Amino acid sequence: MTRTNITIGLFGFGVVGQGLHAVLERTPGLRARIGRIAVKDRNKARTLPTELFTFDKQDLLDDPDLDVIVELIDNADEAYVIVKQALLNGKAVVTANKKMLAEHLPELIELQKNTGVPLLYEAAACASIPVIRNLEEYYDTDLLDSVEGIVNGSTNYILTAMNRDGQTYGDALAKAQKLGFAESNPALDVEGLDARNKLVLLLAHTFGLVAGPEDLLAVGIDRISPLATAYAREQGLAIKLVAEARRLPEGGIAAAVLPTLVAPSHELSNVHDEFNGLVTQSGFADRQFFLGRGAGAFPTASAVLSDLSALTYGYRYEYKKIQQNAHLNLAPDAAEVDVLVTFTDEANAPDEADFTVVHEQFRSAQRGSYLTGTIGLGQLARAAWLRQAGVCVVRLAAPLRAAVSVPELAEAEA
Ligand SMILES: NC(=O)C1=CN([C@@H]2O[C@H](COP(=O)(O)OP(=O)(O)OC[C@H]3O[C@@H](n4cnc5c(N)ncnc54)[C@H](OP(=O)(O)O)[C@@H]3O)[C@@H](O)[C@H]2O)C=CC1
Ligand SMILES: N[C@@H](CC=O)C(=O)O
């Protein structure tokens, strides 16, 4: 699509859809107008003329006057049907739906290849921060070793509100919802699943590794215990929800979403409220840091707007890293991680045999108990105790790294 005057078929007129309408009115750079809007609720009052709205998706998908479909609804299954049909109908698509993308990425990549129709989704990872296009284009020839970031705005907003402003978890979550940062189902945010969906996208554009969300370990912020919070505070560290993907020296990628202790000297420690931040480490450029708003109407709409503009000059993702790194795999059993595990009593205590090394143990009937230790990433993902009520796992400040076997460790210590 290379026209400069574009007509949009918009699905969804919620936080981001209305944000897009507002930014289109104000941008000096793109001549685009919304031709039709599909929504769901027939009883909702709308701020635009009624004749612009429809409740039938075919009114948009079959309309030859609409140049591009912008998909901004909060239902991933329905979004998949819409996006697939739009591509098959030859309509370029812009979407912000990370859940839909993460669940169907291999098929959507194939569909773009087979139809020759572009699908852009800058808003789906880190909202206003242009991470996807930078990873895809700017870093197309550099050797990316890792990406590590705060990629969910709501959870960062909640953690900031609790730790800096003294709000309760419940109040902070309610405020994140009210401000339009949270997903319609906020469990996606607080359980780390939204961050995991974004990690799927980052893996594809950083390393060319197309994984399913269920292949990645995700632990959210919903079970961070008072003891873990106190531990972090005593050490002068912040707890942040961090998505990380790292190339291991022997090949393979370690990737996970985990609440993480972050030192004051780390770039991510200064990422507050609904902001996101991403640190890239690469062979030539070395370390770089991206910061910006990770949720909200205008920041997210700004990324959708940029994708619309990109479509007008014929831009599409080439998935260059997939071509370069066709054989890269996730290697959770080749990686290890240092963790703090807090638990309420012996009934939910972690199995020490799962750990390569246990560093520290603390037991208190009043305060709760904890241990710190090193554990294989695959082992942690499989551990039954991880999902038990009253158990909280937080990554210590060290990054994911290649696993050292016990004999190697003994040799190194001798
Ligand atoms: N909010 C944010 O900060 C960000 C959101 N996103 C993503 O953007 C998308 C939209 O989020 P957001 O705007 O916050 O969501 P909202 O809940 O604010 O709005 C959702 C919209 O989708 C419409 N809708 C739901 N189902 C259908 C359907 N089957 N057909 C047509 N319309 C439908 C709703 O219609 P109705 O108005 O009739 O209820 C509503 O207008 C989601 O995928 C989200 O994950 C991405 C980055 C940031
Ligand atoms: N719920 C998401 C919205 C943006 O992707 C978040 O909080 O990051």
Automatic annotation (TrEMBL):
Keywords: Amino-acid biosynthesis, Methionine biosynthesis, NADP, Oxidoreductase, Threonine biosynthesis. Residues 130-308 form the Homoserine dehydrogenase catalytic domain. Residues 12-122 form the Aspartate/homoserine dehydrogenase NAD-binding domain. It comes from the Bacteria. SUPFAM superfamilies: Glyceraldehyde-3-phosphate dehydrogenase-like, C-terminal domain, NAD(P)-binding Rossmann-fold domains. PROSITE patterns: HOMOSER_DHGENASE. InterPro entries: Asp/hSer_DH_NAD-bd, HDH_cat, HDH_CS, NAD(P)-bd_dom_sf. Pfam families: Homoserine_dh (PF00742), NAD_binding_3 (PF03447). It is an enzyme of class 1 (oxidoreductase). GO terms for biological process: methionine biosynthetic process; threonine biosynthetic process. One of its GO terms (molecular function) is NADP binding. The keyword Metal-binding does not apply. It catalyses: L-homoserine + NADP(+) = L-aspartate 4-semialdehyde + NADPH + H(+). Its EC number is 1.1.1.3. Pathway: Amino-acid biosynthesis; L-methionine biosynthesis via de novo pathway; L-homoserine from L-aspartate: step 3/3; Amino-acid biosynthesis; L-threonine biosynthesis; L-threonine from L-aspartate: step 3/5. Belongs to the homoserine dehydrogenase family. This is Homoserine dehydrogenase. It comes from Hymenobacter setariae.
